[in-house]
Design a protein that fits this description.
The complex is a heterodimer of chains A (about 400) and B (about 550). Chain A contains 14 helices and twelve strands. By secondary structure, chain A is an alpha/beta fold. In chain A, the strands form three sheets. In chain A, strands 1, 2, 3, 6, 10 and 12 form a six-stranded mixed sheet that branches. A four-stranded mixed sheet of chain A has the order 8-7-9-11, with helices on one face. In chain A, a hairpin with a 2-residue loop joins β4 and β5. In chain A, α6 packs parallel to α8. The longest helix of chain A has 21 residues. Chain A is globular. By secondary structure, chain B is mostly helical. In chain B, about 75% of the residues lie in helices and about 0% in strands. The radius of gyration of chain B is 24 Å and the shape is globular. Chain B starts with a helix and ends in an 8-residue tail after the last helix. The C terminus of chain B is likely disordered. The chains are: A alpha/beta (about 400), B mainly alpha (about 550). At the A-B interface, β1, β2, α4, α5 and α9 of A face α19 and α25 of B.
């Protein structure tokens, strides 16, 4: 039987507008967008990403006649909180027009009814999104997207190292543990609840559970706790013994871990952007001998999106900007390792031949050499459970 | 209200509005729906609570005590004017200093590289536990290195006050003629008076040590981290339940700070007779203290110099793997990115000058118009400001500005910077200003000088050292505000710390270093100028 949400989604798809009416709607949106200013709240920790956003802002300014201001933030949760406060204070002309978002923050905004939409699937360029090959463009962690956010880029847990030091990359957690044993103190992962650290734990849960299907159900009761405890006993306890600082301390963030790899203090780094190592090589921050890989049986992957808050001022221009970010031109530029290297959400097969040519993916030093399939994010309720259990077991040295 | 009372009230109004008014309104809005009962239960049940509590107490108390002893030892070496040296060290932001200091001592750091290249030939970093040590020793050391200059700066600006200078010199001569060595005389005569006048700065140092987040994140341990780090993570989370745990943590930490302060005051009262006996003990040369002073001062310029050089190198470094002593590639990328922040630099400078200036004017207007007992009205909020994490106050402020429609406006941004600057400027000025010897005014009045002329020609010039140093600290505080710019400006304005913090979240060391230098540059100039301008002739020999 269909749930109420599914029913709504299906019925809205059935009564889809005819093509012509949709085009007229979009023309109206383009007209309304003119002269507006989009305050795009986006994590600003990387100057290459910031430069890409600057480029996109310049393009839409000259093509569509509206401005985009990059509001630089360190953590998307800040934006969730800001919008929640604004809506609570009854402020209709909010300070955020578009936000870079996914996962927990998306769920929080969706649950709090803080989002405008659905808008994403009626954007002209949404037709090219690879919804079949990349199911995470419609399912953000355990939350259905339902057109409330527009996909922007793909992410998948990826490992990297200096190939001169790590000659055979470990292609599973078991191999990683074996590598750590042979090189004591040279492997670690960011301390949960850092996002990358938590993802590493999810990966371990997935790989060391006889029935991974349980991870896609809500984590409830003693069975879930036992599943986590079994993974700790079966894998982490032994792994930690040969980790950096004997598994008593952990790098505090993914950025710290990356720096430690660059300094030579740790051998293997972790990232969510498969092209980050190549981008770091291009930026002169990792050696040219860097290599990147994913596990043979797959690593956790997801999609990141842009969403429009319910109280946004420039909703029209925000949609046009989201659509531009989805255009083959913008996606191809974003995927360029020298620019940013963020993988596209589009299905190249759906594009015209000219547009396909924009994607000139050539392997660069640091590119992923051994790719694995993407594993779906477990149900969101596993995050608090595993973080709490991890802190209780390993959080005090 | 008579005309005189009316003008007095008007003179006090800005200070009242800007400090207790703004703070109370912000907190009121914050407390509605803040810290639920389950939040407290969750916080105390946090798996890392007890470990984090122990770590917080140790690092906070040990760093404060050590900083105090070292600062006193340094100023007991009375031959030198330390204001300039202290000012230069003060200007470096805590975060930049922690990064540079960390890079000196960590296993893949400069020190280990020197040893590897010169002696041992290590192919990879040694197994040192120099940063992120489980007891927080590296964090304590970093705090001591950063807080000692602050206390030296405070003590020196007191000793450079003309009226106190005269008083101290006379008293020192008496002590010397009773057979005390210079350090012994300092310890018994000057130190108690310095301490009595530095209560607020000492509270500031202790509170900072107990609540610091950025340094703890860089150089402190992770398992467990300090309480402040846990709270910081929780209040930045997207989950309401986790936010509630963080909110409760904020109140618990503020309560902890208050409890420790209370305990210290009681301890001090109990031990007064003992201290008095110590002070009245027979004459000594007291050379030990002075030796310690020399010991403190000797490596200090070297260490800060090394930190500065490290930051400069890092800002230019691309890849810099162990054990290379110098970066493999040098690049100007980070500085080019910084140059792109031109408008942010201007915004920050304008804010720093205007807030520090206005805070000084408001504070002086208050002192000149209000009787001393009313200082409590400002001193309590100023102390509270220190105890609460800036993010919490910024959140309340943001809710207030939303109601007043000031969020995202220049006025909102200015007010958000004003509150912490006002707290520091007032807190630093209250003792020096209030302990000004009234007899000077009596003499001036006797000579027929009207009040304003007396202020302009006698009192303010005599107080120029503390006035200048309060301005300099206010300036530096304004330059370091991140949370207010983030929230109150809603991204409509960009300031230098905002750019710096957002960029450092990506972990690009070169960028973090370049911004660290940029953040230090302006306060450095102001501290040096203030140190020179307020320079007294304090010599006791």
């Amino acid at each position: 039987m269909l749930s109420r949400r599914q029913f709504l989604a299906v019925s809205s798809a059935l009564i889809a507008f005819p093509q012509a009416a949709r085009a007229a709607d979009w023309d109206a949106t383009l007209a309304a967008a003119k002269g507006q200013t989009v305050y795009f709240n986006a994590w600003a920790g990387s100057d290459t990403i910031n430069a890409y956003i600057q480029w996109a802002a310049g393009e839409v300014k000259s093509r569509f006649g509206f401005a985009v201001e990059h509001v630089k933030i360190t953590d998307t949760a800040e934006v969730v909180k800001r919008v929640r406060d604004e809506v609570a204070a009854g402020k209709q002309d909010g300070s955020v027009d578009l936000v870079w978002i996914n996962g927990e923050n998306f769920r929080a905004m969706k649950e709090g009814q803080l989002l405008f939409g659905p808008f994403a699937e009626s954007l002209p360029n949404a037709a090219y999104v690879d919804v079949e090959g990349k199911p995470t463009t419609r399912q953000d962690f355990s939350e259905r997207v339902e057109g409330l956010e527009s996909p922007w880029g793909m992410a998948q847990l990826t490992f990297f190292a200096d190939g001169a030091k790590v000659t055979t990359p470990p292609l599973s957690l078991t191999e990683l543990a074996a590598f750590a044993k042979a090189h004591p103190g040279r492997v670690s992962y960011p301390a949960p609840p850092d996002f990358h650290g938590t993802t590493f734990l999810k990966q371990a849960l997935h790989d060391f559970t006889a029935d991974p299907g349980a991870l896609y159900q809500p984590a409830e009761g003693p069975a879930a706790e036992k599943l986590a405890a079994d993974m700790f006993a079966g894998f982490l306890d032994g792994f930690h013994a040969s980790c950096w600082r004997g598994g008593k301390q952990f790098p505090k963030s993914q950025a710290d871990l990356t720096q430690m790899v660059a300094d030579g203090e740790i051998d293997i780094g972790i990232t969510f952007n498969p092209n980050e190592p190549a981008n770091l090589v291009a930026a002169g921050r990792l050696p040219a001998t860097a290599v990147a890989w994913q596990f043979a049986k797959g690593t956790i992957g997801n999609t990141h999106f842009v969403a429009i808050p319910a109280n946004a001022r420039a909703k029209a221009a925000a949609q046009v900007f989201a659509d531009f970010l989805l255009s083959p031109e913008a996606q191809a530029r974003k995927a360029d390792i020298k620019i940013w290297g963020d993988p596209t959400v589009l299905a190249l097969g759906k594009l015209h031949a000219d547009a396909q040519k924009l994607f000139t993916a050539t392997a660069a030093p640091g590119s992923v050499s051994a790719a694995g399939p993407a594993v779906l994010e477990p149900h969101a309720s596993w995050v608090p459970l595993i973080e709490k259990a991890w802190l209780a077991r390993y959080g005090n040295g | 209200m008579g005309p005189v009372q009316g003008s007095r009230f008007l003179a006090a109004l800005p200070a009242l509005l800007l400090l207790p008014g703004l703070l109370a309104a912000s907190l009121l809005l914050l407390l509605s729906g803040f810290a639920t009962a389950s939040g407290f239960a969750d916080f105390f049940a946090h798996p890392q609570f007890w470990g984090a509590l122990g770590l917080t107490l140790f690092t906070g108390l040990a760093s404060t005590a050590l900083s105090l002893v070292l600062a006193l030892a340094a100023v007991s070496d009375t031959g030198r004017n330390l204001a300039r040296l202290a000012g230069a060290s003060l200007a470096i932001p805590h975060l930049s200093f922690a990064l540079a200091f960390g890079f000196l001592i960590m296993p893949s750091g400069e020190l280990a590289r020197i040893i590897a290249v010169l002696f041992t030939g290590w192919p990879q970093p040694p197994d040192w536990v120099t940063t992120q040590d489980p007891h927080g020793l590296a964090l304590t050391a970093a705090l001591v290195l950063k807080e000692t200059p602050f206390l030296i700066w405070i003590f020196t600006s007191l000793m450079n006050r003309e009226d106190l200078q005269t008083q101290f010199s006379g008293q020192m001569r008496v002590a010397r003629s009773l057979g005390h060595g210079p350090a012994s005389a300092f310890l018994r005569v000057v130190m108690p008076q310095l301490l009595a006048r530095s209560l607020w700065p000492l509270v500031a140092v202790l509170t900072y040590g107990l609540t610091v987040v950025d340094m703890a994140l860089v150089i402190g341990p992770s398992s467990p981290p300090t309480l402040a780090s846990i709270i910081w993570r929780d209040i930045n989370d997207g989950e309401l339940v986790t936010n509630a745990r963080g909110d409760a943590g904020v109140l618990v930490l503020a309560g902890l700070v208050a409890a420790i302060l209370l305990l210290l005051v009681m301890l001090f009262l109990v031990s007064t007779p003992l201290l008095r006996r110590l002070l009245a003990a027979s004459p000594r040369r007291g050379a030990g203290l002075q030796r310690l002073g020399h010991f403190v001062l000797a490596p200090w310029p070297l260490l800060y110099g090394a930190a500065g050089v490290t930051l400069a190198l890092q800002s230019l470094a691309g890849l810099w793997p162990f054990p290379h002593l110098l970066p493999d590639h040098l690049s100007l990328t980070a500085w080019r990115t910084l140059m792109g922040s031109g408008s942010a630099i201007v915004t920050s400078l304008v804010l720093a000058f205007s807030t520090a200036g206005l805070a000084l004017v408001c504070a002086v207007a208050w002192f000149e118009s209000q009787p001393k007992p009313r200082d409590r009205l400002l001193l309590w909020p100023a102390t509270l400001m220190l105890c609460l994490p800036s993010l919490v106050i910024a959140l309340g402020q943001y809710r207030l500005f939303l109601q007043l429609d000031l969020a995202g406006t220049a006025v909102g941004l200015f007010l958000a910077h004003m509150l912490p600057v006002m707290a520091y400027v007032f807190g630093l000025l209250v003792q020096p200003y209030r302990s000004y010897d009234r007899r000077w005014q009596a003499s001036a009045a006797g000579l027929g000088a009207e009040r304003f002329r007396f202020l302009r020609q006698v009192k303010w010039p005599m107080l120029k050292a503390p006035l200048a140093s309060a301005f300099a600290v206010g300036f530096a505080v304004s330059m370091a505000q991140y949370a207010p710019a983030q929230l109150a400006a809603a991204g409509r304005f960009t300031t230098l710390p905002l750019d710096a913090v957002t960029l450092s979240s990506g972990g690009n060391r070169a960028l973090t270093a370049a911004y660290g230098i940029a953040l230090a540059a302006a306060p450095l100039v102001i501290f040096l100028l203030a140190g020179r301008w307020g320079q007294g002739r304090w010599r006791a020999r």
